[in-house]
Design brief:
The structure is a homodimer. Chain A is an alpha+beta fold. The first copy, chain A, contains ten helices and nine strands. In chain A, strand 5 and strand 6 form a beta hairpin. In chain A, helix 2 packs across helix 4. At the A-B interface, strand 3, strand 5, strand 6, helix 7 and helix 8 of A face strand 3, strand 5, strand 6, helix 7 and helix 8 of B.
Amino acid sequence: MNATNLYEFTRRVFLAIGCPEAEAAQAATVLVQADLRGVDSHGVARLAGYVRLYDNGRLNPAPQVRVVHETPSTAVVDGDRGLGLVVGPKAMQLAIEKARVAGTGWVAVRNSNHFGIAGYHTMLALEHDMIGMAMTNAAPLVAPTFSLQKMLGTNPIAVAVPALTEPPFVADFATTAVAYGKLEILQRKGEAAPLGWAQGPDGGPTNDANAVRNGGALLPLGSDREHGSHKGYALGSIVDIFSGVLSGANYGPWVPPFATAGFMAAQEGVGEGTGHFFGAMRVDAFRPAEEFKLHMDKWIQAFRQARAVEGRQVLIPGDPEREMEQLRGAEGIPLIEPVQQSLRELAERFGIDYPTT
Amino acid sequence: MNATNLYEFTRRVFLAIGCPEAEAAQAATVLVQADLRGVDSHGVARLAGYVRLYDNGRLNPAPQVRVVHETPSTAVVDGDRGLGLVVGPKAMQLAIEKARVAGTGWVAVRNSNHFGIAGYHTMLALEHDMIGMAMTNAAPLVAPTFSLQKMLGTNPIAVAVPALTEPPFVADFATTAVAYGKLEILQRKGEAAPLGWAQGPDGGPTNDANAVRNGGALLPLGSDREHGSHKGYALGSIVDIFSGVLSGANYGPWVPPFATAGFMAAQEGVGEGTGHFFGAMRVDAFRPAEEFKLHMDKWIQAFRQARAVEGRQVLIPGDPEREMEQLRGAEGIPLIEPVQQSLRELAERFGIDYPTT
C-alpha cells in the first residue's frame, strides 16, 4: 500500500478514537515509519491493538502530558496514559531542549504505553547535531539466565549518531537473541525455531516456536550462559531500571502487556503504566560538531570497507532500514492478509475508506 | 596472596616507575580490586604490562590530567598518556561533580590507557546516591557481523545502581560472547573452545582457542547473525563511538594495543590514545532517592526470588563478584604461576620485597 495512503488512513483511525489533530498525525507518522523501515511488527500491524487499549480503558487519547520533576539535565514526564507514540516524541523533544542548555538531556517517562520503534525517537536528535538515545521496558517475555519465569520485556535500546556526508548511525535492537515477531512468523508457518531463541518450560533448549506461549520464555541476547546470556540479561535489566524504576513506572514482571498479547497477564502494579527513557547529547558539548561528524564519516567508511565474508558486506547499523525505507517509499508497503483484515475492520467500525492502493 | 600485601607490592611498583604517591595508591587499588572481585584478567596479571607500556614510552607516570572542554553536564578530559587506572577515577569524579549541579554528568576521555575493570569506576557513584556508568574502547579483537577483519575491542559497559538494604546492582561486561581471558585459559590448557566464541580466518565457526591469534577474531555478543551478533556489534560500536569519537581518542581499528598483546599492531592513529566514557546520574534528579532505592530493593528481590532451573538461582549483576570479594578478602588471592613469576621479576628489577603471603 502507498505510504501516504496508509498514513492518512492511520491518522483518521487515531482521530476516530479521540486523539487531537496534531497527536493523531504524530502517532500515524511513527507507526507508518516502522512499516517503511521494514519493522513490520511495530507498524500498522499494531493499530488494532492500540484501539483495543482504548476500548479497554487503558489508553487516554487526549492526555495531559506533564513534567513532574526536573533538574538542568533531567526530567520525569507523566504520560497520563497517553499513546507512547505521542508521549515519546514529546519527551524526546524535552531531552533535546535540556541538551541545548545543559549539554545533555535525560528524560524518564512513566504512565505511558507502547511507543513504537525506538529508533524513530532517537532520530529526532540528529537534525540538532545531537546523539539520540531511547529505550523502553515492556511486558515480561524474557527469562533471566537460570530463571524459569519471564521477568523482562524485549526492552529495546536505540542510539542515533549524526555523520557529515555519510548517513547517520542508527542502532535499534531488542536486548534478546531475537525479536518476538520472528517467532510469530514461524508460528504462522508452523515451522521450528533455531535453538537459542527460546527456552522450554524446564529452562532447557527448545525448537518450539510456540515455547513462549507454552510455559517457556524468550532468551536474552547471548542465548545461554556459555555465550553470554547473563550480559543480555544485564542489558535488559538496565533498560528496565532506567525506564521503570527511575521514572516511577512499572518494572520487571509488573509491566502491563500490550493489548494484543492476551496471554501475558500483568501482576499487581508497582508503578504507573509502561516506562521509557530518552537521552540527547549535543556533540559539540564534547568537540566541535563538524570535527565529530567528520570522524563519524571516517568510522563509518572504515567499517563499511572492512574485508568481509564472501558475498557479504559489513553493514552500518541503520543501513538495512534506510534501504527498506527508500524501497517501500517508492514501491509501497506490503501488508500481510491478517493485517489488511484488521485494518478493514477498523475502516468499517469507524466509517473510514480503506485505501485501495 | 593476602590482598593487603598484594596492594602494597603493587603500589610500590607504581611508585618505582615514577607515579606520585596518591596515584600509585589509586592504581594499585583498582588493580587489586579486580583480583578481589575475581576478574583475574584485569588485576595484577597486567602489572608487568603497565610497566612495559612505561618502558615503551607510551605511559606518562605523572600526567597532567586536564579538562579541555566542558558544559554544565559534560566534559572532555585529556589523560596526558597517564594510567587509565588513575585517569578513570579522576574523570568519574568529575562526572559526579557535574551531576551534583546539573543532575547528570558525562565525561569523555582521550589520550588514556587501559583503565582496569570498568565496574570499579561506576561504583564510585554509589555512595553519592548516583547511578554510575563507564565504558572504554580497546584494541581490535572483534569482527563485526560478516567482517573478516578485527574492527572493535572487547569494549565493556558497566552500570552500577544503588539500592537501599540490598547490595547494589553492578553490571560489568564485555560486549563480546566471551572475554578474551577465557580463550587464554583454554590456550594454556591446550583445549578447544565452544563454537560461538571466535571465528576462523574465513569468518566461519571454529573450535580453535587460538583462532584470534591466527587470522580469526573474537565474536560480538550474540555470536552469529541468527542469534543477534549484529546487536553485539552495534553495542560495541556505541561504546567505541562514545569513548573514541566523542573524546578525540582513537577508535575502531586504530585503538592502540595494551602492552601485553604484541600480536595486535596499531594502524596509524586517528586520535590520541585510548578513549573512555563515564556517566553519573543523581537518582534524585528523577525521584526521591529513598523511594528509588526502595524500588531497587523490590526489583532485586523479585529477580532473586524468580523460580529457577533445578539447582540454580537467578543472580543479580554484581552478586558473583561481591561473593568473590568477601571470599578473597578473607582467604587471600590465588595467583597462577606465570603471574607470580612476572611479579617476582618486577620485585627483582625494582628492588621491592616480594610478599611471601
